[in-house]
């Protein structure tokens, strides 16, 4: 066909026709470097809505060694080249497909990470970011704790505070009644009384 695929027999030609895969779709894939697909792979990409623009965006970022399954996974989880570029700009330069999916599945957005960075939490890994998101530890929650003088919480402590409903409002209320010098564990213990 000159388009990088060679249907093997009339059955594969019919398969392409049934799924309305146009020569233009094949040509667009070839133009972004996707060549030598078999008919089944081509149909899978098409049916999953993987566009040449999506693959081209990945390749523009230097991501060229993904297999068809990984491309489909990124597309299925709506992980755009823009998302990957923003993550890279925040210091996450070597995320693999599974890590990208983990972040996206738990709503860890570039904005979430940038807000954490602005609060001084810059050395967090994928696991820690996912844990914060899973436990609804928001940048706002952290900023309010920092405003109360708590500056050096690690991820586990932040999660513990959130899990035990030790909110900045609770801490402020306890301080108003004279409990001013308690640490995180003491506030948690007090909350569980």
Explain what this protein looks like in three dimensions.
This protein has 193 residues and is mostly helical. Helix content is 60%, strand content 0%. It has helices spanning 10-18, 23-31, 39-47, 52-60, 68-76, 81-89, 97-105, 110-118, 126-134, 139-147, 155-163, 168-176, 184-191. Helix 2 runs parallel beside helix 4.
Summarize the structure.
With 193 residues, this protein is mainly α. Helices cover 60% and strands 0% of the residues. It is elongated.
Comma- or semicolon-separated keywords:
193 residues, mainly alpha, 13 helices, 0% strand
Mean pLDDT across residues = 87
Overall body shape: elongated
Structural class: mainly alpha
- Element order: H for helix, E for strand: HHHHHHHHHHHHH
Nearest-angstrom radius of gyration?
Answer: 24 Å
Q: Main β-sheet: number of strands, strand sense, barrel status? A: none
Q: How much helix is in the residues? A: 55-70%
Tell me how many strands there are: 0
């Amino acid at each position: 066909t000159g388009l990088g695929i060679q249907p093997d027999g009339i059955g594969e030609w019919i398969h392409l026709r049934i799924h309305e895969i146009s020569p233009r779709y094949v040509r667009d894939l070839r133009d972004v470097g996707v060549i030598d697909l078999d008919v089944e792979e081509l149909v899978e990409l098409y049916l999953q809505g993987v566009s040449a623009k999506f693959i081209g965006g990945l390749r523009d970022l230097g991501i060229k060694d993904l297999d068809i399954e990984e491309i489909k996974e990124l597309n299925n989880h709506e992980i755009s080249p823009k998302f990957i570029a923003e993550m890279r700009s925040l210091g996450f330069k070597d995320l693999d497909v599974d890590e990208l999916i983990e972040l996206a599945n738990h709503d860890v957005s570039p904005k979430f990470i940038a807000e954490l960075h602005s609060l001084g939490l810059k050395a967090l890994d994928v696991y820690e970011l996912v844990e914060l998101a899973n436990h609804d530890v928001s940048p706002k929650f952290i900023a309010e704790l920092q405003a109360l003088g708590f500056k050096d919480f690690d991820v586990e402590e932040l999660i513990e505070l959130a899990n035990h409903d030790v909110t900045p409002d609770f801490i402020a209320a306890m301080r108003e009644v004279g409990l001013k010098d308690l640490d995180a564990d003491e506030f948690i213990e007090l909350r569980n009384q």
